[in-house]
Amino acid sequence: IADGGLDKLPDPKFYDGYALTTTLCSQGYPKEYVTGHKITGIEKYDDVEIFIAGAEYNENINSYKTTGGRVLNVTARGETLKDAHNKVYSVVNKIHFDNMIYRTDIGKHEESNDTDKAARWNQRRRGRNNTEICRKRFKNHSYFRRAELLSRSGR
Predict the structure, then answer these.
(1) Running along the chain, 155 residues long, what does each successive block of 10 average in pLDDT?
(2) Cα–Cα nearest to 87, from 55, 53, 49
(3) What are phi and psi of 38, to 5 degrees?
(4) What pLDDT, on a 0 to 100 scale, did the predictor assign at position 115?
(5) Vertex 90 angle, CA 95 and 58, to 5°
(6) How many CB atoms are located within 10 Å of the residue 29 CB?
(7) Residue 56 belongs to what H/E stretch?
(8) Is the bond preceding 30 in cis, omega lying within 30 degrees of 0?
(9) Which residues face 73 on adjacent strands?
């Protein structure tokens, strides 16, 4: 792509339904983390893709080992968000490396049946949109007030 070959790639495919990705990380990421841990459970799974990021194949141990903080991305598609979630986490539970961490709440908040969420947000913001809130915060900032005072005094 970087060399101008975008027109040679196939057209993108679009799918109905949902997709969900969970990132498996080394404990300590994004700060200090230990690498070199053997990874087990990377296999071919139906309807699930494993994208290798911070890992490389080590021929000495005949397996993958961790080389970075963000090690693997596990992605699945499903007819519903819950279906995609179940597929991803069923595979995540089969993968292991020492000090592996990952979030378990990915996709769960989107399943809320609370249709009155927008009304509660507006109530909390007193009907103001995000732009209005940001402008008010900026106007209350000391640098802005100083500039405003200086412009009034003719300096």
Answers:
(1) 78 89 94 94 93 94 94 95 94 96 82 55 56 62 63 65
(2) 49
(3) -70, 135
(4) 54
(5) 20
(6) 16
(7) strand 55-58
(8) yes
(9) 23, 51
